[in-house]
Every structure is written in C-alpha cells, then in structure tokens.
C-alpha cells in the first residue's frame, strides 16, 4: 500500500481536529485503536505492562491527551500523571512515564507548566523513576528545552526527545550532552523552513544524531521500527565498544513485536511506549500518517473484529 502525500496530510488533519477527537471518545477504542492503545485506564495499562515485562521488555506509560486549554484540565492531567506514577510504584512494574507538556498547560503559561512538571518529576524521584518529556511540534521545541533546563537544575530523572527531521536537531544534541534523550525521526507536519522533507535526508540526520549522542557518552534511547537503522546502530556500538547499558531501543506498543523479541534475545534493552486513556484519537491518527504499513495494520484490526 502506498501512502500518498494527500492521504498523509488527511490523517494529520484528522489528528488535530477537535470535533473528531471529541467524537472518538464516544466510539471507544474502535477502528483498530485497541491494537495500539493499552486500554482506557491505569489498571488496564499496568496489566499490559506486566505482560510486556514478563516478555523481557521494559516500558514507558503515556496517558494520552490533546487540546488542553484551561488550567483546570491541566491540573487534572498533572494529578493523573502523579496517580500513574504512584500506581507504577505500588505495582512494582519496570516502567517510566512519558508525557506531553501541552497537556500540562504549556500553551497557557510556561511558569504554570513548570510548576506542574516539578510536582510530577518530584514524585517520580521519590520512587526512583524517570520522566520523559515528549517533543511536540516545532513551535513548542524551544519552550520544551527551556523547561527541561530548569528542571535539570534540581532533578536528574528527566529527559526529552529530539526529532531528526528538525534542522536544529544536531545543534540541540550538542547542547544536551549528558542528558538522557529519546531520538526519533519526527511525526508532525513541518514546513521546509524548520524541517527536512526528504526521507533520505531525515534518515541520514537521524543516524548522525544517534552517533553524536552515543559518542558523547550520553544515555541514548533509539526509537524506531526501521530495522536498517537498528542494524546500523548495532554495528556502530560494536565498532566503538559502546556498552549496552548506555543505550536502549524503543518501539510503540502493538508494532513490530517479533523484532522486539529478537532484540531482547540478543541482550539489548527494549522499551515499549505504551499509550492509554480515552483521548486516543490524535495519537492514533499520527500513527496512521507516519507509515503506510500502519494503515493496513488498522484495517486488518477492524476486519478481525
């Protein structure tokens, strides 16, 4: 199946459509989403993580959320992140927390969002856990890095994500030496002014920033389902005698499960990004926009119901 640019743009448009997002909450986890979203509540998500831990996989949980534009909603999202961290600690699962700061009030006030982040990261620190700040579109990039810098003055258990399709990525990698980073190709629609548009160029930049961060001695999470990239990384770390304890591979819940197990059997750490919650529509549409295989995957899920 070839995912033409108009179809990709269509899925990206849907991911940002508030009316569709509201309607999706009424549908439940239909249209194939249940294959890639681990339930609506914390209990369902933790049950999935326990299953994955038994398979030798570690995880990161993300309570999905989009379009938060009130302090009340942001405070509730903050409380839910803290509740999730406490539930993880009491359950004994091997799992971090991932979050999006627009869900915590970033578009309302940076200072307000920073206060919420301090509460979350402080809670995670108490149970020796780690918080990953997901990177959103380019308009939020510098805000994210500014808040990360403030948090890291007091906490060492927080990191973020760098997107290889952004032209600024290489410079950001250098400035974040010593910070635990998840490195991705990027999933938002961006203009040529800020982002590379050609797949070959994005892939090249992706591998370059992976090498740079590994060689700096920094912890590196390589988030990709691209087995060619994974093979190149494995060769690179062997050639440069980089210990397996300095990096991990990350993949999305529900995707490339056989590859996940292959890497675990070879002794590599594989962390699964496990999203959950009722606000699943935007996440699911972005996954559809990313790769043509994902559309076919969803259609098979619908037909199997």
From TrEMBL:
<keyword id="KW-0274">FAD</keyword>
<dbReference type="InterPro" id="IPR015659">
    <property type="entry name" value="Proline_oxidase"/>
</dbReference>
<keyword id="KW-0547">Nucleotide-binding</keyword>
<keyword id="KW-0285">Flavoprotein</keyword>
<dbReference type="InterPro" id="IPR002872">
    <property type="entry name" value="Proline_DH_dom"/>
</dbReference>
<protein>
    <recommendedName>
        <fullName>proline dehydrogenase</fullName>
        <ecNumber>1.5.5.2</ecNumber>
    </recommendedName>
</protein>
<dbReference type="Pfam" id="PF01619">
    <property type="entry name" value="Pro_dh"/>
</dbReference>
<comment type="pathway">
    <text>Amino-acid degradation; L-proline degradation into L-glutamate; L-glutamate from L-proline: step 1/2.</text>
</comment>
<dbReference type="InterPro" id="IPR029041">
    <property type="entry name" value="FAD-linked_oxidoreductase-like"/>
</dbReference>
<keyword id="KW-0642">Proline metabolism</keyword>
<feature type="domain" description="Proline dehydrogenase">
    <location>
        <begin position="46"/>
        <end position="297"/>
    </location>
</feature>
<dbReference type="InterPro" id="IPR008219">
    <property type="entry name" value="PRODH_bac_arc"/>
</dbReference>
<keyword id="KW-0560">Oxidoreductase</keyword>
């Amino acid at each position: 199946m070839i995912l033409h640019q108009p179809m990709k743009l269509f899925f990206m448009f849907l991911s940002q459509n508030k009316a569709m997002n509201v309607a999706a909450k009424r549908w439940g986890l239909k249209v194939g989403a249940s294959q890639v979203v681990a339930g609506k509540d914390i209990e369902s998500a933790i049950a999935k993580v326990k299953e994955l831990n038994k398979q030798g996989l570690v995880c990161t949980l993300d309570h999905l959320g989009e379009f938060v534009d009130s302090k009340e909603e942001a405070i509730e999202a903050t409380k839910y992140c803290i509740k999730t961290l406490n539930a993880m600690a009491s359950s004994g699962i091997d799992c971090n927390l991932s979050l999006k700061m627009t869900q915590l009030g970033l578009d309302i006030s940076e200072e307000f969002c920073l206060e919420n982040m301090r509460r979350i990261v402080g809670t995670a620190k108490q149970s020796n856990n780690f918080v990953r700040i997901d990177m959103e579109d380019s308009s939020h990039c510098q805000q994210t890095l500014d808040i990360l810098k403030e948090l890291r003055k007091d906490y060492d258990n927080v990191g973020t994500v760098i997107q290889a399709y952004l032209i600024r990525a290489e410079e950001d990698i250098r400035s974040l030496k010593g910070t635990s980073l998840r490195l991705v190709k990027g999933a938002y629609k961006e203009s040529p002014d800020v982002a590379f548009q050609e797949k070959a160029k994005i892939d090249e930049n992706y591998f370059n920033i992976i090498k740079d961060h590994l060689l700096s001695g920094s912890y590196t999470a390589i988030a990709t389902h691209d087995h060619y990239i994974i093979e190149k990384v494995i060769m690179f770390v062997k050639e440069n005698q980089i210990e397996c304890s300095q990096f991990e591979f990350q993949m999305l819940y529900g995707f490339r499960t056989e590859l996940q197990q292959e890497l675990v059997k070879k002794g590599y750490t594989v962390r699964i990004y496990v999203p959950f919650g009722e606000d699943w529509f935007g996440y699911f549409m972005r996954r559809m926009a990313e790769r043509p295989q994902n559309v076919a995957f969803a259609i098979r899920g619908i037909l199997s119901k």
